[in-house]
Amino acid sequence: MVVNKAEVITGRVVLVLVLILTLLPLAGMLSGALQPADRIPDGFSWPSDPQWGNFAVAFRTAHVWQLLGSSTLIILGVVPLSLLLSTLAGYALGNLRIRGGGFVFALLLLGLTIPFEAIIIPIYYEITAMGLLNTQCAIILPLIGLYMPFSILWMRAHFAGVPTELSEAARIDGAGIFQEIRRIQLPLAMPALSALAILLFLWTWNQFLLPLVLVDDPDKRTMAGALGAFQGQYLNQLPLLFAGALIIMLPTIVIYAVFQRQFIKALLQGAVKG
Q1: Which among 28, 132, 153, 205 counts the fewest CB atoms within 10 Å?
Q2: Phi then psi for 50, rounded to 5 degrees?
């Protein structure tokens, strides 16, 4: 296939423009975070005397170490269990011929259409009745349930594309379902699982509303959930607020930058099947 040189140049120009538009807000936040704490940033202007100490103040006053521990606990509770449940359910819907599979599939699609904000009040009363309010479990359990529709459909799409001959050959060799999953299906599903794990990590780390509603103690929330309390305390000191927001955003940027190849590989794998 012959590629037009003008098309290549146009594509690169578009990519550069998108990159600039993506980086401009981050550059504006960085310039604002380096202003004196008592000054209101006015547009995009690099300060003559950058106040790098604002990051240290934001790190200390936002209790970042406590929030890192809380966020890590929540992520370790949400991501592995979500991956396990979605893998088993996705395999059942995508590879096995189970009774009522079509109905379950329709319910999962319906679950994707329900706005999260529409069920936050029922979740609050349910968590209160369970006695889990103001604990990390109040965040972990709802997030697992909220992530299930997308996670199961994601894994179902992968398993539905795996040739059935592999399962049939494993059955002929005497392998059970769980042996087949462990020895054949899981190695093939690693790109899909890696991409899903990245998405679940990013969504959990950036979860804002649920921790804010279900947990009163800011030190037990996620990093993003604690930004609300930090904003209320330093609303009139925007440079500190910008510094705190950048600190919260940094881990997600690093994680995506490190694992972007696995994420893109999973997307391309699904795009070129067949």
Answers
A1: 28
A2: -60, 130
What would the pLDDT profile of 9-22 be if each residue is shown by its tens digit?
A: 888 889 889 888 88
HEC string for 46-108 = CCCCCCCHHHHHHHHHCCHHHHHHHHHHHHHHHHHHHHHHHHHHHHHHHHCCCCCHHHHHHHH
Q: Pick from 75, 84, 108, 70: which is nearest to 198 by CA?
A: 75
CA angle 32, 37, 43 (to 5 degrees): 25
3-state SS string over 211-262? HHHHCCCHHHCCCCCCHHHHHHHCCCCHHHHHHHHHHHHHHHHHHHHHHHHH
**Nearest residue to 211 via CA among 71, 113, 78:** 71
b (16+ CB within 10 A) / e for 81-116:
ebbebbbebbbbbbbeeeeeeeebeeebeeeeeeee
Nearest of 159, 146, 158, 141 to residue 108 by alpha carbon? 146
In angstroms, what is the C-alpha Rg of the chain? 23
Number of Cβ within a 10 Å radius of residue 152: 25
DSSP 182: I
Residues in contact with 139: Cβ distance below 8 Å, sequence separation at least 6, in sequence order: 74, 207, 210, 211, 214, 215, 221, 222, 225
**Total length of the chain:** 274
Distance CA 226, CA 235 (A): 14
